[in-house]
Amino acid sequence: MMKSRREFLVEGSTVLSGLAVSNLLSRSVHAGHEAALKLGVIGVGWYGMVDARAALQVGGVEIAAICDVDSEHLEKSASELEKLQGKRPKMFKLYEDMLSQTDLDAVIIASPPHWHALHLWACLKHNLDVYCEKPLAYDIRECQAMVSAVQRSGRIVQVGFQRRQHASFQQVRDFIASGEAGNIVQVDAQIHYRAGTKDPTPKDPPPSLDWNLWCGPGPLIPYSEQVGHFNWRLEKTSGHGHLVDWGIHLIDATRMILGLTTPQKVVAAGGIYQLKGIITTPDTLTVHFEFDRCPVVWRHRLWGAEEYSPDVNNGIFFYGTKATVFVTDGRWVVVPAQKNSERKEYTPKTDAGVEHMRNFLTAVRERKQPACPIEEGYRSTATVKLAMIAYESDSIVRWDESQGDIQDNPTARALLKREYRAPWRHPADQEA
User: Fold this and answer.
1) Residues 136-151 as b or e (16 or more Cβ within 10 Å = b)
2) 400: closest CA among 268, 261, 257, 297?
3) 42 in the Ramachandran plot: left (φ > 0), alpha (ψ -120 to 50) or beta?
4) What is the DSSP string of 355-422?
5) pLDDT tens across 102-161, in order?
6) In terms of DSSP H, where are the helices of 289-351?
7) Taking the CB of residue 127, how many other CB atoms lie within 10 A of it?
8) What is the mean pLDDT of the segment spanning 371-394?
9) Angle at CA 286, nearest 5°, toward 283 and 291?
10) Exposed e or buried b for every residue in 342-377, given b needs 16+ CB within 10 A?
């Protein structure tokens, strides 16, 4: 076991303070706060542009360069950005070219998760700060190598768990910390919806898309409309499923609210019952996470009737001895344990995406840790990835956070790292 895997969680909180001042002031933005931050964006599909718009809304930035393996995405996004900021960004197909040929201060990584590790790795080599979308990476060994690399570099890295900035989740954190809900005995988190699916029949990719490069270090799978743009989230080799893609937000929020680290034991059960032959990750899944403080149960179903009330089909229940607290975007509810007690509902409004980006840009300017530094992004990503390992290995997974490793389960342990497709090299192998 490498020393970095054992010590990175402890070292992460202090590494920034030990950096030489000259390194922090190596770029012009660090010396003067008046200049606009020059940002690059890797991946300008749907959510890459959401992040770019958020940065422009915060202000004090220029989207100077964009990168995508789909030329249609590039042209469309460049035209929109030109209208929004009055200047057309440079366009690149290869991220290495963008990073080497453009003078940037920071980069937004909004590519599919199987590319995140290599994109972050390259940004750090160019001494750039990074806003990286969730999940942090595709596998846990990638995540661990990324944390170590960030700590060595001292760069600012924010992971895109924007609900950390939403007033609903912050207020629930404070309410539970006050003791008004009593002792939290269990947490249930869930997102139930009907997944939109497309034709899974293999076909030629559109002429604008370099499919081989899109697959990159992951397996070269056949292109179809189902695993192309957007719907890759439910593909095993890229997005890795609903819990990893969307549910991870609620797992991260739960961790933030209760101050949890990673689970010691994970059990998962489910399968592809209704969408077999269309998606490659479970359309129905239940996961039991054993944390130090209390168990957390995850549930999702991607098909069928919408019998769940829209008020609670997406959110987190905290079951306390004095009250149950439910929280979702823009709303949280307190249900007292006493019979016939009045429920209280609160509806704070927050543009969490903009505020999370604002937090990152402020951290870049002021050289301080953001709301979701890479260590926290790692813990939330590792949590949901352990769930998928438990599901795919059909076994109980016991996790030792201090060692960063699965205990006494070789089959599950083998799933901590996915072999890369040549010529790409896994960051953990590059560290070695």
Assistant:
1) bbbbbbbbbbbbbbbb
2) 261
3) beta
4) HHHHHHHHHHHHT---SS-HHHHHHHHHHHHHHHHHHHHTS-EEEETTTTEE-S-HHHHGGG-PPPPT
5) 999 999 999 999 999 999 999 999 999 999 999 999 999 999 999 999 999 999 999 999
6) none
7) 14
8) 98
9) 140
10) eeeeeeeebebbbbbbbbbbebbbeeebbbbbbbbb
Distance CA(284)–CA(379), nearest Å, equals 24
- Cα–Cα distance between 391 and 240 in angstroms, integer? 12
Q: Report residue 233: phi and psi, to 5°.
A: -60, -30
pLDDT digits (tens, 9 = 90+) for 34-90: 689 999 999 999 999 999 999 999 999 999 999 999 999 999 999 999 999 999 999
Closest CA to 113 of 262, 3, 252, 217: 217
- Please name the amino acid found at residue 261: T
Q: What angle do CA 33, 38, 39 make, to 5 degrees?
A: 125
H/E element, 81 = helix 71-85
Q: Which domains does the chain have, with CATH numbers?
A: 3-162+353-373 (3.40.50.720), 165-350 (3.30.360.10)
Among candidate residues 308, 231, 243, the one with its CA nearest the CA of residue 270: 243
Neighbouring C-beta atoms of residue 341, cutoff 10 Å: 11
Q: Which positions ≥6 away from 93 have C-beta within 8 Å? A: 67, 68, 69, 71, 74, 210, 213
Residue with tokens 């997406």: 314
**Cβ count near 245 (within 10 Å):** 19
Any idea what DSSP says for residue 140? H
pTM beyond 0.90, yes or no: yes
| Three-class secondary structure of residue 327 per DSSP | strand
| 241 token code pair | 């499923």
Interior angle at CA 372, CA 371 and CA 375, nearest 5:
135
Distance CA 364, CA 156 (A): 6
Distances in whole angstroms, Cα of residue 380 to Cα of each of 70, 94, 134, 242: 30, 29, 9, 14
